[in-house]
Amino acid sequence: MKEKRQPLTWLTGLLFSEDVYKRIGAYLLTGFILFAIAWAIAYFALGESVLKNTLLVDKLFGIKGSATIGEKWEARLGETFKLFKKEYKTEDVVNNWGNILLVTLKVFLHHAVVVLLFIFLLNRFRIGRFPLGLFYYLLYTVLIGIVVGTNSYPYPAQGLTRLGALVTFFRFGLWVWFSYGLLLAATANWTWLKTDSLLDDAWQREGKFWSWPHLMSDEKEVLIFGLLFLLVSSFAEARLIVYYGRHLL
User: Fold this and answer.
1) pLDDT-derived band of residue 7, with 50, 70 and 90 as boundaries?
2) For residues 144 and 34, is the Cβ–Cβ distance under 8 A?
3) CA 152 – CA 57 distance, rounded (Å)
4) Cα dihedral 233→234→235→240 (10° resolution)
5) Which helix (DSSP H) or strand (DSSP E) does residue 198 occupy?
């Protein structure tokens, strides 16, 4: 008699696959479904800006820039400078790009702390086949869906509409979410303590907590790509912050 397959068996198989790229695909597919559901519920059922002023949209190190950085460099370089035979005003260029780089650093450090605590650290613990970082990633996906659906970003949505917040999300939030998925997949096997069930207190130890976990070559690649995407997404958000002048508030 042919064995009956359980629904979504193929997806759970990918979620816990030894192949890091299959894990990535499963994380992103599951996350996309959860994001779409959360966004739809938030858009049609929740009030606007319900998650504003939370750490989902605000940053641990703030987004404050400098209003005088251009003046300081103008005193050193002069009122204008030439680059590739084109003349630029020192104060304008440094005020713009100097603040973008400064805010990029602050945003990246914010995400680095989140990744360290809620992905790398949580992945040191496993319940059944689930690394705890996966629970955080799925919860984060749902909350970001609510952020976008309720237009809770601290800067205006594209077109000044709640629907336009989706465009804002695609400009940087999508890449943050994607980079979290890569970093989660790369470190899913960093288990230090594991148990068969949440109700089972018989935790088993694997190695030392402070030892650097072994990474396969493809996991190292995914880890590097995840960090690079996180840096790029931080830069993209910093440009938006400076464009809307939020760095001077």
Assistant:
1) low
2) no
3) 7
4) 90
5) none
